[in-house]
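User: What would this chain look like folded?
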Amino acid sequence: MKVEYATRAVEQDEVRESAESRKADGQAAAPVPGLDPSRLGTAQPAVPERDRREVVFDIRELTARYGSNTAVRDVSMEIYTNLVTAVIGPSGCGKSTFIRCLNRMNDLVPGFSADGQVVYHGIDLQGPSVDPVAVRRRIGMVFQRPNPFPKSIYDNIAFGLRVLGMKDSLDDRVEHALKRAALWDEVSHRLRSSALSLSGGQQQRLCIARAIAVEPDVVLLDEPASSLDPIATSSIEDLMHELKRDYSFVIVTHNMQQAARVADVTAFFSLSQADENGDRSGVLVEYDATQKMFTSPSDQRTEDYVTGRFG
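Assistant: Here's the prediction, encoded as structure tokens.
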């Protein structure tokens, strides 16, 4: 076993030296062995060229702080319609802070502040005249752990619809949301039962159904499968593939295999070098099509992370 690991390490060093040599000679980087998404799960279809993608978010020099602590600094990127965007990176690099900026969920945290712009369909969501509640109506969110309300399955879906005045054909809306979340067949006979009686995977799909019931434009998912078993995780991933025809998804995940399976494009965040006070903040290192990120990343830090050398 030691010989196998030693051989693999030597092979990786040779690949890295070869890649550095090719870069020095101005040649295209060779694909990194072991990072082919098709070997990690379902390979994604080719992503449309950048000039053919429709932008849903244009993030410009976003910096987010909790008090004096800077969580993410100077993030600029575009997020595209009807694609799944994965956000990956080591713990503490601001991934969750970043996606919570997209629907102003961080506003609920005491001491939070943000600079820069989060432009959503031409509107800067950071603007003082923007209603955060209206933002969250258009940009839904599913959290790391399932958080159904202590109500019936039916009332979990109907709650947001009632609050927003979407009461016409309420039964049909509830049924449609549960069907879209691939949950209807499992719960249609017990809609008045407590949502807390569902399994963990069913509860998370219920939360997705609750999010899409109010017809959002974007769904944010903060490690939605981290507490689920492999079968439930697969159900969530299949659901994202199905629903991205109608919604744009941004998902935070620590699971490289999951990012390779579900994401069309991937953003890699990491920690900056320590400043004069020893503080570090999250920075965007690289953002590209998932296939490229996992086979021929442009930045050595990305390659080191996706191959497991750190993080």
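Confidence is low (pLDDT under 50) at residues 1-24. If you want, I can go into more detail on any region.
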